[in-house]
Design goal:
alpha/beta; eight-stranded mixed β-sheet; eight-stranded parallel beta barrel; 39 helices; binds adenosine-5'-diphosphate; binds magnesium ion
Length: 973
């Protein structure tokens, strides 16, 4: 026979018997739910807990699977446990003389909204009522409890609408001429019970059950059913909580906080959940029952005041708090009730906290010796760290704004963050305004795939319909946009472009502020603040530990058939194009530059003309160089198409060579080309010099020019329009001519699919002088910096390699340039040449690629595009959202690295590469390098480092440490 019910008093040994070992806290939570496990644990350590029992989560699943019927034996076990509780507490359920009342409380493994609310006072009926009046000598309280039971039971267990009971209540209050519930007398409440019973019968066609067992049975059933309720299911979908966890039911002896002024109820935290400060924190009410504190109908008192009202209880509560925190080794959130001066504990759980509090508590608990560093690192999430790097609303400002009555509406907190902007009522307007540099909040009743372009342009998203899994919510999370969805109070009128809320009218263009973490919408602009990283001592301490954990030389264990490199965890490098980014990243803790995109420097205003000149002259100049090269080779080899050259032919070729050389000397294309390169060389050199200085002692990976050249030229469409207009106006002269030339060049360069066209190493092979200039600049800068005492570690990265032969052509020539520069400068620096792996073929042939490449860096953006065959922009604008919504894909693969596909290529590349070169340095420089799940994968795949944007560096440091801790004692594959 399955054991479905556990008496709280003996849950621990009973579970040990069933499991065959001592149950861990985690196991207890799975079986008894969080609340039930907490009650059992508190009871076990000797705290005062009202006797209770728990019906297991497994019973819930069995109930659902059997088509909403209790599994065999469950009800019998329930009655048996109830009997044991009666024995312990000395009262009987349904006993008219001295009745036991119970609460019926739901409790899943994780606390989640949507579950049935607690029903108090179960067991009360027309008869037990009398016994209770005798026991408590408080008629009013008992009638009040009874009317609450009928309403609570009717609403939560039987689904009667709130308004039904509210209406009856309001009518009675009007008749009695009172405003407050508390002004109703015992006789009034007795009358109210009478009317509630009538309302109950009218709503359901049956009477409120007088049989206590029937009440209990219906309440338990209702808890189980609520697991399959829409709200609960929606929440689980949004939070990725499996459906088969089920909820437990806790049936617990009622204790009464509303029995007089020596009774009360409250909630308390062992530390301040907002700041993390180690102070006792919470609220309580005297003479009140559970829900009153949360419902906010009466003003609560801060829990520290309990020391004045009930000094002994307060001292006991402080002791219990301390004991619980030590027992669980984490901040606790507790619920308690005092009945006639006696303290009862009703709940304890790990307390929710703000990001700031999470970091402070973790660090302080290490100092207190409660937890160790690794535990501290697991107590904080990457999201918590991220909090410190983004603008947030100042809490004081939020309070002020609320006090001013500017809180407009509350909805689902679909995607966190603070956003301030002007309301735009459709996607096109949002996009237009966004492109014009305005901060926009896009507002819609709900969003559709056609709206994505506007959502991308907006700072935040606001809707009046939908929940946590609505399109708006999914997209917002995907793009990291703050969002509040389903704010039902907003009456949006798309025609008048107005939104009515709380008697106000907001028009398109009016400012609102969204707090995505709280799900709140405010009128007007609320100032935001970015926490100052330098001043966040606790965070810096924690991340210092993160680096130490990841630096452990035994962090990674490899199987015997893999060379087993590296054994330390991941380092965190940064993507930085400018010295100021590099310096910022260093303060955030980066220990290298994993990607410097040289072309960004080309876009600078004073350089762009030279870049364009270089591009426009490159083809003609290169054609001449190629001709010279061919003639030179033929003459050097002394044969042509396998036949030796005769004297005539040799002389002929010789004179042709002279002619080409003459042409080169006089060619304007060559002059322009070389002139432009000469102009660009010194500016590139000084860019690199600044980077080396900023990263003194750390590696700097510089990527050679990557994008298709047309990106540096004006757009073909615009040129065409301009030229046509000038012609029709009959203009001519040098301006038109140069525009026409530019247009011709742009047309010549047009490619059907430029992202797969002439870019990356293909450019370096087609126009070698450009990359040679870059390598010269890199090494001149490195040598100069080295002479000044800077510890330089340049690494030259060749993008978009697909075949080792490409490196044979390009890298070998560039290494020659590097050696030549070092010779000229009279100084040697340590350096590497390597390649990006972003084409599947490069990953598949990585063993060959590694014969030349001394390092790999995964460009997972391109690698994802090419592996899936998606063009990122098109995919994200058109179908990816739908894919994620419909769960074709679990995540957007451009945000979370696709382990099964792209990840497989990554791993294959690492293994093959290290076969050729055991200590091959491998990193990742795509956006994935800053995303926690992808970082975990990089740890597992054997990468040396992840490189991400400066603002992601702290997040990546935590994620790298967490990956290290999670996989510590496992052999990675
Ligand atoms: P939630 O999961 O919403 O916190 P609980 O089951 O903890 O729901 O119940 C809510 C409140 O009801 C508790 O904080 C407590 O004050 C009150 N309550 C629950 N069970 C009892 C009980 N056996 N005796 C007295 N009050 C109770
Ligand atoms: Mg509770
Ligand atoms: Mg790329």
């Amino acid at each position: 026979m399955n054991k479905w019910v556990y008496l709280t008093q003996s849950a621990h040994p009973d579970l040990a018997k069933v499991l065959g070992h001592e149950p861990s806290i985690a196991e207890m939570k799975v079986i008894l739910g969080g609340k039930g496990a907490g009650l059992a644990e508190m009871t076990r350590v000797g705290l005062p807990v009202p006797p209770s029992f728990t019906i297991t989560t497994a019973a819930c699943i069995a109930f659902i699977e059997a088509g909403f019927r209790f599994p065999k034996g469950m009800w019998e076990q329930t009655l048996e446990a109830l009997h044991q509780v009666e024995e312990i507490y000395g009262k009987k359920f349904g006993d008219p003389a001295n009745p036991l009342l119970v609460s019926v409380r739901s409790g899943a493994k994780l606390s989640m909204p949507g579950m049935m609310e607690t029903i108090l006072n179960v067991g009360l009926n027309d008869e037990t009522l009398r016994g209770l009046i005798e026991f408590t000598e408080n008629k009013r309280f008992v009638w009040d409890s009874y009317r609450r039971l009928i309403a609570m039971f009717g609403r939560t267990a039987k689904g009667i609408a709130d308004e039904v009971f509210d209406h009856v209540m309001e009518t009675l209050k009007a008749e009695r001429g009172v405003e407050d519930d508390t002004a109703l007398t015992a006789a009034d409440l007795r009358e109210l019970v009478k009317r509630f019973k009538v309302a109950y019968r009218e709503a359901l066609g049956e009477d409120f059950p007088q049989d206590p067992q029937e009440q209990l049975k219906a309440a338990v059933e209702a808890v189980f059913r609520s697991w399959m309720g829409k709200r609960a299911i929606d929440y689980r979908r949004a939070e990725n909580i499996p459906d088969d966890l089920g909820t437990a039911v806790n049936v617990q002896t009622m204790v009464f906080g509303n029995m007089g002024w020596d009774s009360g109820t409250g909630v308390a935290f062992t530390r301040n959940p907002s700041t993390g400060e180690k102070t006792f924190y919470g609220d309580y009410l005297l003479n009140a029952q559970g829900e009153d504190v949360v419902a906010g109908i009466r003003n609560t008192k801060p829990v520290t005041k309990l020391g004045e009202d009930m000094p002994q209880v307060y001292t006991q509560l402080l002791e219990i708090a301390d004991k619980l925190e030590r027992h669980y080794r984490d901040m606790q959130d507790m619920e308690f009730t005092v009945e006639g001066g006696k303290l009862w504990m009703l709940q304890t759980r790990v307390g929710k906290r703000t990001s700031r509090a999470a970091v402070r508590i973790a660090v302080e608990m290490v100092a207190e010796g409660l937890i160790n560093r690794e535990e501290a690192l697991l107590r904080v999430t990457p999201k918590d760290v991220d909090f410190f790097l983004h603008p947030q609303f100042d809490e004081k400002e939020i309070k002020k704004t609320k006090a001013e009555g500017r809180l407009l509406a509350t909805g689902v907190n679909a995607s966190p963050g603070a956003a301030v902007g002007m309301l735009a009522f459709d996607a096109d307007t949002a996009e237009e305004w966004g492109e014009a540099g305005k901060a926009v909040i896009m507002i819609r009743p709900e969003t559709k795939p056609d709206d994505v372009h506007g959502m991308i342009a907006a700072k935040g998203i606001l809707t009046s319909r939908g929940g946590a899994t609505a399109h708006a919510a999914v997209v917002a999370r995907q793009f990291g946009k703050p969002a509040v969805v389903g704010a039902r109070d907003l009456q949006i009128n798309l025609e008048t472009r107005e939104v009515k809320v709380q008697g106000q009218v907001l028009r398109e263009g009016d400012y609102v502020s969204l707090d995505g973490a709280a799900g709140e919408v405010y009128a007007g602009q609320i100032p935001t603040v970015v926490p100052d990283y330098g001043k966040e001592k606790n965070l810096r301490t924690l991340l210092g530990w993160a680096d130490e954990v990841a630096a452990d030389s035994a962090a990674r264990q490899w199987p015997a058939d893999y060379a087993g490199y590296p054994t330390r965890g991941l380092q965190v490098w940064t993507n930085a194009d400018y010295p100021r980014d590099a310096r910022r990243a260093r303060t955030f803790g980066a220990v290298g530059i994993g990607l410097c995109r040289t072309e960004h420097m080309f876009f600078e205003e004073e350089r762009l003309p030279y870049v364009q000149q270089m591009i426009l002259s490159a083809d003609d100049a290169q054609a001449l160089f190629d001709r010279r090269h061919r003639l030179q080779t033929t003459l050097e080899e002394g044969k042509e198409e396998g036949k030796p050259l005769d004297d005539n032919r040799r002389a002929d070729l010789q004179s042709r060579l002279e002619a080409v050389e003459h042409e080169i000397e006089t060619s304007s294309a060559v002059k322009d080309y070389q002139g432009a390169l000469e102009q660009l060389l010194p500016s590139q050199r000084s860019d690199f010099f600044g980077l080396f200085e900023a990263m003194d002692g750390y590696p700097v990976i510089i990527r050679l020019i990557d994008p298709p050249l047309h990106e540096f030229l004006p757009s073909q469409e615009e040129l065409l329009v301009e030229v046509t207009e000038m012609r029709t106006r009959g203009e001519h002269g040098p301006e038109l001519e140069s525009k026409e030339q530019m247009l011709a060049a742009v047309q010549r360069m047009h490619e059907a699919n430029p992202m797969m066209g002439l870019r990356g190493i293909r450019l370096g092979i087609t126009y070698p002088d450009i990359t040679k200039m870059q390598v010269q600049a890199i090494f001149e800068a490195a040598c100069q910096a080295a002479k000044k005492g800077v510890d330089v570690l340049p690494e030259v990265m060749i993008p978009l390699t697909g075949h080792v032969n490409e490196l044979k052509v390009s890298q070998v020539e560039l290494e020659g340039v590097a050696k030549q520069v070092m010779e000229e400068q009279g100084i040697d620096v340590e350096y590497k040449f390597g390649t990006m792996i972003e084409i599947p073929r490069a990953a598949v042939t990585a063993d060959e690629v590694a014969t030349l490449a001394q390092f790999f860096s995964y460009g997972t953006n391109d690698l994802t595009q090419m592996t899936f065959g998606y063009s990122r922009d098109d995919a994200e604008r058109r179908f990816l959202v739908k894919y994620v919504e419909q769960e074709v894909l679990a995540d957007n693969p451009f945000q979370v690295l696709d382990r099964d596909g792209v990840g497989k290529l990554v791993k294959m590349g690492v293994r093959l590469g290290r076969k050729t070169r055991r200590e091959l340095e491998v990193g990742i420089c795509g956006e994935h390098g800053g995303e926690p799940s992808s970082i975990e994968f990089c740890h597992m795949a054997g990468l040396n480092y992840v490189s991400c944007s400066p603002f992601r560096v702290p997040v990546a440091r935590l994620a790298a440490a967490q990956a290290t801790i999670w996989h510590k004692d496992k052999v990675l594959e």
